[in-house]
Design brief:
This protein is mainly alpha-helical and 326 residues long. The protein contains 20 helices and two strands.
């Protein structure tokens, strides 16, 4: 029903980006991306897209959602077409234009957007590198706050591909632009936690929390990262839970996790008093190795029993290297 080929392409791109990543595309940005510049083309674009989005939510309207999915599937179906759409929308962003930069920000910092990008490019490392390098060479990426976000997303994407060294380099480059950039710091901390680099993980998590004292997610994730770390860091977890509680007192995650933390501390003290744990077991204990699986998978009703059972079993596998098991 859309006679003009450029407008068809634009409509498909809007459907793909909005449906897949959930953000609105400003009209001028969309027009720049596809080269629509004739009055008749612009009028047609406005006519076919004016009711497409829920403006305040940046999502496809329900009655357009299925149509949008079908259009995107057929018109932006292959990885090359998706790569072109993703490259084009960032290349069209005008530095300093808040509405257009909001699109870039949503794309590179949205929850799990890096995973969607990797999936849409068929987990092809060359395609992922090509996309992010293209983004880093755009006008928008010349501004530090845009560039650090792209680099952080690049780090997440390469981590999803299993390239740990490249992920570290991208996080390091983002932090070089802004040493207090908490998003990159905490993502790097999670990476080091997964790689059993305990001291690096603790240092990065604390740096992130101190850099963003008013950010709830950063405080909560710092507490979680330190809980997965060794017991030498365990005593400092409480302060980050307290910070998170002060920022969001009724958040169910912080309430649940902090309660389990306090229960665990009490159980450790009791185990030491009863002689359940030897000094060697305590020194080698990594909560992430020995008991965290039980903590977060158990009901509060049987949590204490599971915890006591895990504590009793620690000495049995004390010879196992925690850093190779995590």
């Amino acid at each position: 029903r859309i006679p003009d080929a450029l407008t068809q392409s634009l409509y498909a791109t809007v459907c793909y980006l909005c449906g897949r990543f959930g953000f609105a595309i400003p009209e001028n940005l969309a027009l720049k991306q596809t080269g629509i510049n004739q009055p008749a083309q612009i009028d047609l674009f406005v006519a076919v897209t004016k009711d497409l989005l829920v403006e305040e939510a940046g999502l496809l309207r329900p009655r357009h959602s299925l149509i949008g999915q079908i259009v995107a599937q057929h018109s932006v179906g292959g990885p090359r077409a998706k790569e072109a759409a993703l490259t084009g929308v960032v290349a069209a962003v005008t530095p300093g234009n808040a509405a257009e930069e909001a699109v870039l920000n949503a794309l590179v910092t949205g929850d799990n957007h890096h995973r969607r990008i990797v999936e849409d490019l068929h987990r092809n490392p060359l395609a992922v590198d090509r996309l992010y390098e293209a983004w880093l060479n755009t006008d928008a990426a010349r501004i530090h706050y845009n560039r650090k976000r792209i680099l952080s997303s690049y780090g997440l994407a390469t981590r999803a591909l299993g390239d740990i060294d490249a992920a570290r380099e991208h996080f390091r480059a983002a932090i070089a632009l802004d040493p207090s950039y908490a998003f990159a710091l905490r993502q790097w901390a999670w990476l080091e936690t997964q790689q059993a680099q305990w001291e690096s993980a603790a240092r990065l998590a604390r740096t992130a929390a101190d850099a963003s004292p008013d950010d709830f997610v950063t405080q909560l994730q710092c507490a979680q990262i330190l809980m997965y770390n060794g017991l030498e860091h365990y005593g400092s977890v409480r302060q980050y839970f307290e910070r998170a509680k002060a920022l969001s007192p009724s958040n169910p995650d912080v309430i649940r996790l902090s309660e389990r933390y306090e229960m665990t501390i009490a159980s450790f003290i009791q185990a030491e008093a009863e002689g359940t744990l030897t000094p060697g077991a305590l020194r080698n204990l990594r909560p992430g190795r020995a008991i965290v699986r039980a903590w977060f998978g158990s009901d509060s009703r049987d949590y204490r029993d599971k915890l006591k059972s895990d504590l009793r079993n620690i000495e049995e596998d004390e010879h196992i290297d925690a850093e190779t098991v995590h």
